Amino acid sequence: MNLNTIKNILSSGQIASDKVNPIINTITVEDLDSLNEIEKEALTELVNKMLSLIQDSASGAYLEDPEKAELLAQAML
Fold first, then answer.
1. Which of 32, 38, 52, 53: disulfide with 59, CB 3.0–4.6 Å?
2. CA distances in angstroms from 68 to 48, 56, 58, listed in the order given
3. Global pTM?
4. Greatest CA separation for the chain
5. Cα–Cα distance between 22 and 47 in angstroms, integer?
6. Per-residue pLDDT tens for 4-51?
7. What 3-state class would DSSP assign to 18?
8. What is the distance between the alpha carbons of residues 65 and 28, in angstroms, rounded to a whole number?
9. CB within 8 A of 33, min separation 6: which ones?
């Protein structure tokens, strides 16, 4: 998945569950500077929700790389 695809998904307002891990796995901290405010807000919400959901084993949420998600969350503060 390339950055333009990620930006389009983030700006659409609707992120399919099968896109969550590819987005988190692909985007880098350096890419954050190229996101507009809407995209940054969507990514922040997505990452924070996923980090919260994986704490609840009943949620069924799964992150392939939770450490990367944590890194992104910290970079977006």
1. 53
2. 12, 19, 22
3. 0.93
4. 35
5. 12
6. 999 999 999 899 999 999 999 999 999 999 999 999 999 999 999 999
7. helix
8. 13
9. none
